[in-house]
């Protein structure tokens, strides 16, 4: 499913109120067979965000994480993070809805919600009471999308946001350094944005440009010592540690979810020599890239 243009439906007549919404949202029921392995290919991206209600013992392979739940869970995924899951129960049921960023207007920046951000927790285990509640929302979505109500996509937007808000309420409240509205926070924010702009790596021709703390200091026009102090103060980690952690996250994703050879992965992550990448990976993961790929 894609936008009207992607679907080749731009010349197809449809009511004005559907022109904007068609292809931006849909909902499906899940009914997987035993042992089903669902691979949501990361590099065939259509720009869809996805919220899934999954029931049954399931193991989720999300980016560089392995997550598992026994009963039921709510999963949030974005178009930039590859994932797959494997169900061990006799049957897996549930629902999922997909939507584009454009489905929400400028008042709701969907990508800014913490549950869709890289590094956040995408999975929320549910109690039986919560499953009943969440299932009810998906059922209302199914009923609503089948109606001819002219404002049905507004209702669907509201129901989607209801799922997001329910998940956000399940997260522990993070303590916020109220007195940290200073330069350190600003620099840490700019650094994080600069770092994240280089990911995800979607093609063997794409390469990380900024790899060393000095590269970031130069782009941010600050002294490297000032950058290090700011990041240490705000995050508790050094610039090198933050860069290494992000490179490792992407390395695990590429090794798990692509068939690129290790030299290609190494080059994409900015390493000039393959042995340097192997030593870097082994230092952080204990395993070599080859053994990591083999074990995942």
TrEMBL record:
Pfam family, one: HTH_18
Keywords: DNA-binding, Transcription, Transcription regulation
InterPro entries documented for this protein: Homeodomain-like_sf (IPR009057), HTH_AraC (IPR018060)
Biological source species: Mucilaginibacter defluvii
Domain of life: Bacteria
Keyword Transcription: yes
Keyword Transcription part of the UniProt annotation: yes
Domain annotation HTH araC/xylS-type: ranges: 215-295
Protein name: Response regulator transcription factor
């Amino acid at each position: 499913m894609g936008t009207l243009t992607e679907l080749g439906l731009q010349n197809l007549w449809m009511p004005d109120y559907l022109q904007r919404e068609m292809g931006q949202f849909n909902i499906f029921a899940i009914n997987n067979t035993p042992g089903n392995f669902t691979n949501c290919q990361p590099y065939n991206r259509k720009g869809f965000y996805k919220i899934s209600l999954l029931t049954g013992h399931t193991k989720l392979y999300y980016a560089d994480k392995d997550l598992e739940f026994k009963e039921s869970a709510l999963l949030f995924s974005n178009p930039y993070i590859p994932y797959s899951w494997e169900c061990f129960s006799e049957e897996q049921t549930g629902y999922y809805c997909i939507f584009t960023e454009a489905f929400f207007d400028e008042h709701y920046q969907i990508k800014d919600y913490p549950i869709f951000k890289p590094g956040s927790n995408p999975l929320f285990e549910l109690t039986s009471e919560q499953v009943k509640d969440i299932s009810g929302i998906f059922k209302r979505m199914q009923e609503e999308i089948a109606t001819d109500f002219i404002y049905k996509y507004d209702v669907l937007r509201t129901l989607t946001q209801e799922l997001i808000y329910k998940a956000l309420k399940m997260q522990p409240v993070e303590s916020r350094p109220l007195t940290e509205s200073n330069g350190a926070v600003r620099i840490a924010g700019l650094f994080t944005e600069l770092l994240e702009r280089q990911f995800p790596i979607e093609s063997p021709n794409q390469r990380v440009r900024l790899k060393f703390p000095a590269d970031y200091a130069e782009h941010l026009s600050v002294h490297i010592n000032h950058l290090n102090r700011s990041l240490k103060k705000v995050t508790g980690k050094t610039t090198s540690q933050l860069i290494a952690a992000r490179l490792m996250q992407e390395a695990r994703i590429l090794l798990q979810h692509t068939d690129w050879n290790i030299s290609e992965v190494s080059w994409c992550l900015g390493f000039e020599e393959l042995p340097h990448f192997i030593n870097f990976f082994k230092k952080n993961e204990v395993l070599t890239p080859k053994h990591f790929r083999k074990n995942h």
